[in-house]
# Entry
Amino acid sequence: MTQHKNGTGSIFAKKYNVVDLLYFEEYTDIQQAIARETQLKNWHRDWKINLIKTLNPDMKDLSYSFLGQDPD
# Structure
């Protein structure tokens, strides 16, 4: 997350300015995580936004609390 915010993350993240963490899911099994990612990639944008809003209705950047930092 720090790399993304600093512009040193992946090429995709840098190109599209992907710096906010709005939603995440945790898995202990890599196969389940890959299956879920594949499923979400096939969803429409509106479906993804609605999923995000179920757990993060204000669409706040969660990376600060995830990293234990203050956003201000």
